[in-house]
Amino acid sequence: MAAAVVLVALCLTAAGCGSGGAAPQAGPPASDGASASPREPSPSASLSGNPSPAPSSAAPPPKGPLTGRTVVIDPGHNPRNRDHTREINAQVDMGNGRKECDTTGTATDSGYAEARFTLDVSRRLRTLLEAEGAKVRLTQDDDRPFGPCVDERARIGNEAHADAVVSVHADGSAVGNRGFHVILPAEVRGGGADTSRIVAPSRDLGERIAGNFVRTTGSAPSNYIGGNTGLDTRDDLGGLNLSTVPKVFIECGNMRDPKDAALLMSEDWRQRAATGIADGIGSYLKR
């Protein structure tokens, strides 16, 4: 937690959390924002972690400090990806290579699926940002049979001319690996990818989210990725490589660790997680 306190102090007293580079991720990633973990078990309808069903209102958001700003929230994976393995295994362009369209994501040992977690936090985040006046769009709202693919997820943010895009995830690492981390885009140029103009603003966005996430949730930065900074830079995620607007991923915790899993399954903690992300986005957009 000493690292967490330092990160909070930096973010609350300066424009960002520092400009130092993050340590490279240990081990090969399994998917676009997902770790090397088993395919998702069937979600249990009795778990308290099912996503809250409150859809966004059709009415325009109220006037507020984020009026005129557009935010795209990208809930990682899709609860029905597991029923469409052929489609999600299809290869798509990610700028510097090709990768599967999407994955099923991970889950807790009790079967609470990452895709359910990401939807719940994303919906809470939408509500918070709309209350501040932002125009918010979700890349998916449990309203399609699978996906979208990682290239389409990037395209949604680009076509919305979003001021900020955040992809919400939870990790699937080994027991004992705990904490959150924010994934930042590396500089990638190749094929349809050119992140050169979004690397710096994305880092600013990510640092602000990390600092506010520590403050609001009490969670420490990851003890296994990012050298205790809570930040990790990657060039293998199509959702980042193909983005032309500032974008980051956040892995809110490790679903395969019992202590982190208990937090991720807590409705109160998920609300605090959404608040921390919203505060970070708001800090970035109000700068």
Give your account of this protein's structure:
With 287 residues, the protein is an alpha/beta fold. It is built from 8 helices and 10 strands. The chain has helices spanning 2-13, 85-89, 114-131, 150-159, 199-217, 238-241, 258-264, 267-285; strands at 70-75, 91-93, 98-100, 135-138, 164-171, 181-185, 189-190, 193-194, 231-234, 247-254. A 6-stranded mixed β-sheet has the order 4-1-5-10-6-9, sandwiched between helices. The protein has a two-stranded antiparallel ribbon with strand order 2-3. The two termini are 27 Å apart.
- Note the gap between the termini: 27 Å
Give the helices and strands as they follow along the chain: HEHEEHEHEEEEHEHEHH
Low-pLDDT runs: 1-6, 8-57
Strand content: 15-25%
Brief overview, please?
By secondary structure, this protein is of the alpha/beta class. The protein has helices at residues 2-13, 85-89, 114-131, 150-159, 199-217, 238-241, 258-264, 267-285; strands at 70-75, 91-93, 98-100, 135-138, 164-171, 181-185, 189-190, 193-194, 231-234, 247-254. The strands form three sheets. It has a six-stranded mixed β-sheet, with helices on both faces.
What is the topological layout?
Blueprint: H1 2-13, E1 70-75, H2 85-89, E2 91-93, E3 98-100, H3 114-131, E4 135-138, H4 150-159, E5 164-171, E6 181-185, E7 189-190, E8 193-194, H5 199-217, E9 231-234, H6 238-241, E10 247-254, H7 258-264, H8 267-285
Parallel strand pairs: 1-4, 1-5, 5-10, 6-9
Antiparallel strand pairs: 2-3, 6-10, 7-8
Helix pairs in contact: 1-5, 3-8, 5-8
